Amino acid sequence: MPQYVIESEMPGVGRLSTAELRAAVEHSVCVLNEMGPNIQWLQSFVTADKIYAVYTAPDKKTIFEYARQVGLSADRVSEVTMMLEPKIAEG
After folding, report:
1. Backbone phi, then psi, for 36, in 5-degree steps?
2. Domain 3-83: CATH class, spelled out
3. C-alpha span between 45 and 53 (Å, rounded)
4. Domain residue spans in the chain?
5. What CA–CA distance (Å, rounded) separates 77 from 8?
């Protein structure tokens, strides 16, 4: 299944408390459970003012529907075409 990176502008997200982030994660998981197995959240990276999240889904339409239900801006959704990691250099 294709992987997608979602970039969401969220001013101040890096200053949210652990409890606030936990509540957001719980809401996201509930939406994912309701949407079924066609979409899976792999991981997210929180910066000062953005969240970058990686998901698997059959298409961008599914990603945008998830973002709408969760309340994410999904400013940019990009399909992952290749994953690189340091061990590739080892030969």
Report:
1. 90, -170
2. alpha beta
3. 6
4. 3-83
5. 9
